[in-house]
Specification:
The complex is a heterodimer of chains A (488) and B (518). By secondary structure, chain A is mainly alpha-helical. Chain A has one domain. Helices cover 77% and strands 2% of the residues of chain A. Chain B has 518 residues and is mainly alpha-helical. Chain B has three domains: 229 residues, no CATH class; 239 residues, no CATH class; 42 residues, no CATH class. In chain B, strand 1 and strand 2 form a beta hairpin. Classes of the chains: A mainly alpha (488), B mainly alpha (518).
Chain lengths: 488, 518
Amino acid sequence: MEAAVWVIILPLLTAFFIGISKVYVKKIFVPLVISSAIIYLYLLILVINNSYPPNVYSVGAWRLIGINLMVDPFSGLFLLIIALLFLPVIIFSVKYIKSYKHEYFIFTYIMTAGIAGMVLTADLFNLYVFLEVSSLSSCALVALKKTNKGLEGAYKYLVMSTLGSFFILLATILTYYLTGTLNIAEISLEFNEIPFKIKSALMAFFVFGYVLKIGLIPLHFWLPDTYEDSPIPYNVLSSGLVMKSAVYALIKVLYIIFGIDFLDKSGLLQIGVFWGVITFIVAHLLAFQQSNLSRLLAYSSIAQIAYIMIGLFVGTEGGLIGGNFHILNHAIMKGTLFLVTAIFYYSLSAVNIEDIKGLAYKFPILSFTFVVASLAIVGLPPFNGFISKWLIVEAALESGFVYAAFFILVGTFLSLTYYLKVIITLYTKNDKEIVVEEPGLSLSLPTIFLGSLCIVFGVVPSLPLRLINKIPTFLLDNGEYIRVLLGG
Amino acid sequence: MITPGFLYFIGAILLLFPVYEKLKYMLSFLVTVAAIIITLHLIPGYSVQLDFLTFTLVPFKVDNINKLTGLIFAVGGLAAVIYSISMCSLSHLRLIFVFIGSALTAVFSGDLFTLYVAWELMTISSSFLIIMTSDVTKKTGYYYFLMHVAGGLSLLWGIFLQYSATGNFSLNNIEVGIPFFMIAIAIKLAFVGFHTWLPLAYSKAPFYVAVILSIYTTKVGVYVMSRLLSGINSLAYAGLISALFGIAMSLKQKRVLKLLCYSIIIQVGFMIIGISIGTTEGITGAIFHLVNHILYKTVLFMVVGVVIYTTGKDSFENLGIMGRKLPITSIATFVAFMGIAGVPFFNGYMSKSIIKEAIQDPILTLGLNVMSFGTCIIFLKFIYYAFFKNSDRKVDKKPPVSMQLGIGFLTVLMLLVGIHPFFLENLTNMHVDLHYFDKKHLLSGIQPFLWSIPIFILFKKYIVKNYERFLYFDIYLNMAKLFMTTGYHLSNYHDGKLNKYLLWATSTLIILLLLFMF
């Protein structure tokens, strides 16, 4: 089945044809973008359905020497996030983006191709290449509006992203030098021979490089700046996919190559959980201070990623399920919040919290969506964020990280303080006459769709959990993964 | 089978559709009445099971205690919705329905998970009710929401501890993490020290919101306490202290609504004492007291609501409009007063007698008498302003019929329970072996009331005086300030200079290498 290959190729091709359409046929632009996104959705569903048991594809039939793609439930989850976010964001952007329209779509499609490549590849160097594809196009998207703030953010992003990539590349090269192969499964087998100290150093480089891209404190500083003045629909993909794909890569490298036993022995699990706790506490404190809505959401993203890291670093089956569920939920919740923010920006160029005062009476349904998503991200029942946080806390308690479990609840309280601030501003009557541009259905429908998912996944969590429940088998037991990849 | 809480949720969803005014009245009436009928016909022992995630939940379970509590909640729902329907808009009505529905779900929940979900739903819906009803309540709503979520999270942490120790969610007496359950419940039932949200929210919010909040919020706390923390004897003294604090505070209030708020704290003290004794008699007394308390306190809130509606303010002087001008309101006030004072043949007497009978400790008996006495004094002040002080206030507008209907309905119920106390017992098969109307109980019941009258007359000038607001200290605000300043200092480190950031990155790398290598 070739669908997995097309998941990477289709966005690249679309990006190419968008470029051509700019030069020759301008009329074809909207149909091209939309139809490509719809076909892409179909492809993704096809691949996700085939993610269990895992499938391995050798591109060009070169077997192990060539490029291998592997679809397992973990990558299936990320494809699911792409499937849920991509089409709504594209529909949203067609109307929302007014300047540099072609560039925006070209870079968005390339970025998606990069992310799809990252989650599908089973090759360490390809992982790096796809990571760079997505990071660089992401940088370009930040700078798209060419405002001072946007350019400053893009510059910081570029510096930090390059620094991170440098260490990832360094670690990749060292790995190749030590093992003589780039296939993840073969590296993992070879790694049994490598001394403990060297492996530790390698791991430190990998962790540092990827965490720079994930943005745990104190490596988070570039993140709010990039969100501040970039096209807001891009922020949806950025917080939902770009940051998460780095989490994916880190987890894949750590769990498959190094193996859970090594992580435990080297103390990474303890460090990771502690790091997560520090990160979300500080991020919540900082988020409360923000007056810019996008920056507030950015700090909240940092905090949520920290929850995810705790879940993933607890190192048990429950923790992996909770963390992965939170990845999905955070993509949905933060996507909703950013899309509502984007509509506010579109309608009356509101950027600060003060600017959205009284908008609830202009946009009752959208504001309700905002409230639902923010309560979900705070982690109150009966929304989806509650379920995944519950799973994470339960797993942390089970494996003895009592302090982490306790502070997650404290963090829930802290996050309420600033989301509630925004909500109350939204619902305070404004005496000023507000002139708004009606957002129309193509903007509000994707938003409401994502917002309704917050409730659906909260009430019926078994829908996504059917896929997520299969993830831990291949991560906790890397022997299983290796067997599938080498045997395929 | 459809549960009463679920019925309210359906009502809230139906109200999402654009509904005409008449249809709104019809729908609300249907839902509230149907909830009462369903609750009346519940059979103790009935339960529903549901598989969720890896747990088997019991979202609905009926027994005698929660049937009675649910019944009074449903009755309160009917009265409160009728009372407030002419004033509240569709979106508020929706929130009210969600609030009542979640309170009923909490009462009928059979496991801790459902309880927590319903508990938080109550918090969310009531907070939004406070936030959205008027523009002066935004900060109050913020405070209320944060306080209650802190309580809810404390409950959640307790549930986690209990679950990881015992492996189930059953609603029995708690074994592990009792302090966290205590904090959660203390916040919900406005125990002294955790009570700051109550006077703030109930006095700032529009009066019809206060009526609805006062029925459910604290009472759910009491009910949950009777389920999870009954029989901890030392808590009885805590309840006593809380009640004494409530008496002292309510005597100093200038606004009637605030007086009622602090009087809730006193009444909750009675229930805490009853539950803490832990015997069947004590708990039954506490639950009966909960029922009676909902009846008379709701009526008092509604009466003050009428005063606010007709005069615009809830100062004591404005109470003077009662008397001849508002006959139904005046009768209701009188009945509620007799009830709260615990005078025989009115409803409060019955449950107070049961609790008094259950107490063995002489200190507590004395305390209980002091509490009754204090309550009488407070409400004599209320009655004094309402009926005895000459007032020249005029009624600008008549209260609508729906308001009076709500008051009248509860007043009739109060009289019924007062004259025939066995009515409550028969309703739910909870029999207390007590002869309410023998000489001993009658005497001990009426004593505090009789004492309070001469004392009120003697010390009138101190009691009726307007006290200045004394030093106001709120520890939670100070904690919030600490939180803000810490955040402010942290955000000052983020000045946007890239070289500083690179320094952070480098030091992180060095720390990481050090950690992994050595």
